[in-house]
Write a structure and sequence with these properties.
mainly alpha, 83% helix
Length: 214
């Protein structure tokens, strides 16, 4: 945190904007930590305005995840089409994954903002699974605004006490996400045939992801 404070003291709002943008684009850097450090810096020194911190972080989070989405949409589909078979992702299973993401994508994009691993990759996943653009942008914006307000204002008003609370909460969220992911895998495997029929019926006319880029 000491090094992040020095970084914020030197670069101000740009420090938060840059790291949060990069993390949201899919590169694992301490985006949440820099948001906390910037909010604490604003509370202690008043050289930064907390409203400006939250607004800057919200814009960075939204833009970074949006860029990740369009990268995933343009590059992820060809990669899955070309190499998916090598890792067990047949065209049928790619349709199944696409169908599940279309149904639950909004929850993933919104809730994933609060989980470090998902926060970095949710845009790429949403794009690769062809989540509708408007739906993605809406829930991406909502997630970015709620996340930055919760973390930024929490650190600003509660100070260092918030740092000690946020860490176990983040670990708990990660653990719950992992458990939910494992449970989803078992459910999908148990219901794969039925879900596959629903996916094929829902995505009729796009029998393979390759057609989406054709």
């Amino acid at each position: 945190m000491h090094h992040l404070f020095a970084f914020v003291a030197t670069y101000g709002y740009a420090a938060a904007f840059g790291l949060i943008l990069v993390e949201s684009l899919g590169i694992p850097v301490p985006g949440e930590a820099i948001l906390i450090a910037t909010a604490l810096f604003a509370a202690r020194t008043h050289r930064l305005n907390i409203a400006g911190v939250v607004a800057t972080a919200s814009v960075a989070a939204f833009l970074g995840t949006s860029l990740g989405y369009f990268v995933g949409r343009s590059v992820g589909i060809p990669l899955l089409t070309r190499y998916g078979e090598y890792v067990g992702l047949s065209s049928a299973r790619r349709r199944l994954g696409q169908y599940l993401f279309l149904r639950q994508g909004a929850k993933i994009v919104f809730v994933g903002r609060f989980v470090a691993f998902l926060r970095a990759f949710e845009g790429l996943l949403a794009g690769a699974n062809r989540m509708p653009v408007r739906r993605f942008l809406v829930f991406n914006a909502l997630g970015a605004i709620v996340w930055t307000n919760c973390i930024g204002l929490g650190a600003y008003f509660f100070g260092r006490a918030f740092v000690h609370v946020s860490r176990p909460l983040g670990l708990a969220a990660l653990a719950l996400t992992a458990l939910a992911f494992i449970a989803t895998i078992f459910y999908v495997r148990g219901q794969e045939a039925a879900l596959q029929r629903k996916a094929d019926a829902a995505l009729i006319g796009t029998n393979d992801l390759a057609q989406a880029i054709g």
